[in-house]
Write a structure and sequence with these properties.
The chain is built from 5 helices and 8 strands, in the order ββαββααββαββα. With about 140 residues, it is α+β, with helices and mostly antiparallel strands. It has one domain: Transcriptional regulator MraZ domain (Chemotaxis protein chec), CATH 3.40.1550. The protein has a 6-stranded antiparallel sheet with strand order 1-7-8-4-3-5. It has a two-stranded antiparallel ribbon with strand order 2-6. The model has no long low-confidence stretch (mean pLDDT about 95).
């Protein structure tokens, strides 16, 4: 399970250290892809496989399903941690998430999100302003 927020820095080659507490869960491999909110989503294989199967099962006749498939799979990267617990974030994904030097690594239970700190601050501000309303609206689904 991935929890917490961790500040990290990308090196000149685009490598990002994964928090040590997350590394064991990523030992069998991982997939990095576009997140929905202009962040990156990092999945351990155990979470990626069932997600990929659900996405592939979406009807190919639905244009939104086809576009969602493209969004998730077109720039996905099958990665492994290096000897120092880092991943190499591909340039296309760095551009998409506007990652230059600083990054926030956010645990989101089954996966990890990687954020530009300014973009994350905007999300955090929205959560501060409307978190109670969001929780109330979603309470019936939990």
């Amino acid at each position: 399970m991935f929890l917490g927020r961790h500040a990290h820095t990308l090196d000149a080659k685009g490598r990002l250290a994964v928090p040590a507490r997350f590394r064991d869960a990523l030992g069998e491999g991982l997939v990095l892809t576009r997140g929905i909110d202009r962040c990156l989503s990092l999945y351990p294989m155990s979470a990626w496989r069932p997600l990929a199967e659900r996405i592939v099962a979406l009807p190919i006749t639905d244009p939104d399903a086809r576009n969602f498939r493209r969004m998730v799979f077109a720039e996905a990267a099958d990665l492994a941690l290096d000897g120092q617990g880092r991943i190499l974030v591909p340039p296309e994904l760095r551009r998409y998430a506007k990652l230059e030097k600083d990054a926030l690594v956010i645990g989101v239970h089954s996966h990890i999100e990687i954020w530009n700190p300014d973009a994350w601050q905007s999300v955090a501000d929205r959560l501060d302003a409307s978190g109670a309303e969001i929780a109330e609206r979603l309470a019936s689904l939990i």
